[in-house]
Amino acid sequence: xxxxxxxxxxxxxxxxxxxxxxxYGPLALAMRYxxxxxxxxxxxxxPEIAAGLNSVPxxxxxxx
Length: 64
Hints:
The structure is a single chain. It contains 3 helices and 2 strands, in the order αββαα. By secondary structure, it is α+β, with helices and mostly antiparallel strands. Strands 1-2 form a two-stranded antiparallel ribbon. The longest helix has 8 residues, at 26-33. The termini are far apart. 2% of the residues are buried.
């Protein structure tokens, strides 16, 4: 996962046409649309990303 940061996976604020908008990252899009995300060689990721991913299950709604 090269030089990625956790914000690159989740998303970040950006300026478009003079206004601030939130640009969803691939992890946030997968969560939003119920898709599967494949994080290849996740064992090689940085501690920042690993810690961020550790908090993701707590943000999901419980399964019905």
